[in-house]
Design a protein that fits this description.
alpha/beta, eight-stranded mixed sheet
């Protein structure tokens, strides 16, 4: 049973196109300069393309993979015109994304027999974590699911209050304690409440602190251990939220959180306000963790299920 089983609608495609507009425009302006005066893809064009991809926050390692693949095609075909570069790039990037995101539209599916389905959301403060949780809760509720939120980021009063605003807006219950309470205790109470209320989905917010990785690791491990006293295999999903507009900083956050806990999926937010949309390609490739959601606007429906085919089409359209 999946959250989304709908065809990628015209409205969602338009929202995606608009959300990636700034990234696309910047990328193709740079690409045009990279091939200016050239009719054939040669070493100079590839060197320029390498710079364009790195400047678009695709990341060095992923960029080198893409360049190697294009170089192999150039060697094989002997003559590839610069007018073909766009379609070749599109094919190679789609191929890279396919290696991590094996399905066209990945979603937070809820397997039969798992109830409540527990999602633990991690990420540093300011990346759009609370907003992502609120939008997810809205999407699940629209699908007829009973959702409960848990405010386990107890280190900031603002975090609890922000989540409460979203819970009220979406009209779902939220479990909270006083600021400074034990996050594991909040998580325990949330799951107990979810089981008692026969909820379908539980979404747990956690503290976004990275200044001390050991503390973060210990805290997340404790939350998991305490949740498992109520639901044996909780959490079923660990969703890392990253701010796409921070570019390379998002790579570092992905690295640190992957070391601190077992991240199973990614949400990349704020892509509509940045020219750094290439970060989705690099992060997906480098960490081999599926990107499940992307944020392409501020509207409640602008958190989209990541569809790799539609993403590449929008980026290269």
């Amino acid at each position: 049973m999946s959250l989304f089983k709908k065809i990628f609608s015209k409205e969602k495609k338009e929202s995606l196109d608009k959300g990636l507009e700034k990234s696309k425009s910047t990328f193709f302006t740079k690409l045009s300069k990279a091939v200016a005066g050239k009719s054939k893809v040669d070493d100079d064009v590839l060197d320029n393309l390498e710079e364009v991809l790195i400047a678009s926050d695709v990341g060095v390692d992923t960029t080198l993979k893409i360049i190697d693949r294009i170089q192999a095609r150039v060697s094989k075909d002997k003559y590839i015109g610069t007018d073909e570069l766009n379609s070749i790039l599109k094919e190679e990037i789609a191929g890279l994304l396919a290696e991590t995101n094996t399905e066209d539209a990945v979603d937070l599916s809820i397997p039969e027999g798992i109830k409540p389905y527990v999602i633990m959301v991690v990420g540093v403060n300011g990346v759009g974590k609370t907003t992502t949780i609120g939008k997810l809760a809205s999407q699940f509720k629209k699908e007829g699911k009973k959702v409960i939120l848990g405010a386990a980021d107890t280190f900031r009063a603002a975090a609890i209050d922000q989540l409460q605003i979203w819970a009220d807006r979406v009209d779902v219950p939220m479990v909270r304690q006083e600021m400074g309470s034990d996050p594991a205790s909040v998580s325990f109470d949330t799951l107990k409440s979810a089981v008692a209320q026969d909820a379908d989905v539980v979404i747990i917010d956690t503290a976004g602190r990275l200044h001390n990785k050991i503390n973060l690791m210990n805290e997340l491990t404790k939350i998991k251990r305490v949740m498992q006293k109520v639901v044996d295999d909780a959490p079923h999903e660990v969703l890392l939220v990253l701010d796409g507009s921070t570019g390379q900083n998002a790579f570092e956050q992905a690295k640190q959180f992957s070391l601190a806990t077992e991240v199973t999926s990614l949400a990349v937010t704020k892509l509509d306000g940045t020219a750094k949309g290439g970060v989705v390609i690099g992060i997906s490739d480098q960490f081999q963790i599926p990107v499940k959601y992307i944020g392409v606007g501020e509207g409640i429906d602008d958190l989209q299920v990541f569809n790799k085919t539609e993403f590449v089409d929008s980026f290269f359209d």
